[in-house]
Amino acid sequence: MIKLAIVSSKKYLKSKQAVALVSYLDNQKIIYEKILVESQIQQFKNDITYDLIVSVGGDGTALKAMTLGWNQSVPVLNLGSGRVGYLVNSLENIDFDSIIKKNFNNFKNRKPIIQNNNEKQPAFNEIVLIKNAPTRMLDMQIETYNQIVKVRADGLIISSSLGSTAYNYSAGGPIVQTSIDSLIITPISPFTKFPRSIVLDGKSIIKITIFKKQDFSIQFDGAEVIEGNEQQDMVFDYRLSKNELKLLEESDNPKLDHFLNQILR
User: Fold this and answer.
1) Which residue of 122, 124, 155, 217 has the lowest C-beta tally within 10 Å?
2) Does pTM surpass 0.85?
3) What is the mean predicted confidence (pLDDT) over 211-240?
4) For residue 193, what are the CA distances in angstroms to 1, 140, 174?
5) How far apart are CA 191 and CA 207, in angstroms?
6) Per the residue annotation, which of 51, 59, 95, 233 is the catalytic one?
7) Using an 8 Å Cβ cutoff, are 125 and 131 in contact?
């Protein structure tokens, strides 16, 4: 019998999608546990084995479930209808009769961005290096393929194709189809050079140097992971992981009508 973990918030557990899902699971006598993103997700027990993690909510909830699935090596199904909902699926379109039989045939493999080869801290949308001092820009250096560019900006976004419609898009970056393994470098309010995004292939390695004595933070999918003001230059390298997360019912369709009609209406 399949075992599920449902990742959601108090708000979304009251939604029609969540109520319908729980009702279906109860009728089928499926074992599941509810994990609240507000409090319980950090206390997830490593000794409990699940066959599938299901998120119910918007894209933020989906990203938390994906990180949990990554660290537990468990496939993830994202359900819900966030304001844009680019990462989530509609419950009506899911064949749960097949899923409860563990027929995980319709899935896509997604590679997160990792920093300094740390596989335990994935970013499926983007990693953002951003200033903390409101009146000062960050002085940085970008190195890739033995080429060096210096840049002054409020920050940098390093995005995956999956995250190209998130912060990258808001900062003026391109929409990249999710079937393409890529790294997208997009500056945030640049002052010199580097006024446009650069799209690199999925085998690329990006080395970022943040020069000393600057207030900055580094955010992984919106969550702050590093905050610094160091007396020496700080160097970070970014690449796509060689490992992959299975996302059920995920599509490589660029969803231009869904995405652009929502944000332009």
Assistant:
1) 217
2) yes
3) 93
4) 57, 12, 18
5) 20
6) 59
7) no
